[in-house]
Here is the input.
Amino acid sequence: MSYTLSTNSDTRRLTFAGSGHSIDLHPIWLRERTTEDGTVDPGSLQRLYDPAELDSKLRASHITPTEGRSTITWTDGHVQTVSHCALAQELGWEEDALALPAAVGWAREPTPFPRHVWPEEGNDAALAAALDAFWTHGFVVFSDTPTEPGALQQIAGRFGPLRQTNFGLLFDVFTKPNPVDLAYTPMELKAHTDNPYRHPVPSIQFLHCLVNDATGGESTLVDGLAAFDDYASIDPEGHQALTNTMVTYRYQYGDERLEDRSPILETNKNGQFIGIRNSDRLDFVDAVDPDVLDVFYRARHGLRSLLNNPARRATFLLSPGDVMMMNNRRLLHGRNSFQITTGERHLQGCYIELDGPAMLRKRLALLAKP
Here is the structure.
């Protein structure tokens, strides 16, 4: 692609243009991206200066174009070389090989189903393909993993550090007397997100099947991103109530107390989806105006009806050696009921954060570069 970088009629700005795009850039915005010798640490690329201390009247005194680059001489004497391709990638005009795959919402089970054989060490291509499926669909199911108790620590640890909670580094999911959570019963679990009462909410959950001889107990997943978009069309007023009304999520068992506050639908300042928190067992809305709550309660019912619609589910049975890796900020998971008299059922679970797989996927992309 051919791009140009020039000062425009307003000499306080620079214009970057090409490939059907054009944008005016603030001088300091461009200058604080310099990586010239002496401006950043060569290993970490962290700045060795504070951009807040740059001259507020900084200007480009001269721009020299070369093939694919522009060299800028700034009024404070600094000389910076700008890659047109890197700048276009940062602006979203060109595909960045290190960018994570875009999330694609699904209101029906994804086809093909994102199931991958557990990649052997060194099989970077297979690992990258599985991670691409995870970022695209919000989940991936691995098969053919070890079935020894505790193996999940090494499996999940391949993607990032495990997060310790009051349930332990690993937690066992099987029927227990006096359970601390309904997951440890044979009852059906509706679509929900885990740990909405934590700050921050664990962003990735793993479930590792060790034994599954019981009748029933199929795992279910629903895409909160697709439901977010669909419900905005169904009930715009209700959708807004779910993004604006604060809800307290509370967990208590014995002397353990955990609590956090958030809307059910979390968005950024542009109204774009960040995450969903949904638990019909743990949510307590603020005591706001009853007219506001009329809309909120209608919307909460409508959204949950959407989320629990069987047609929107991915439904699958985890067999011994299967590991489900899912984005707990985006997806909701559940389980069909099972019969404890028909066989044993034992899963182990754990949590990690999204930055681990993100860093791993970018590292694999760098290794794959010619």
Observations:
- The helical segments are 27-31, 84-90, 124-137, 151-157, 224-234, 236-244, 290-307, 355-368.
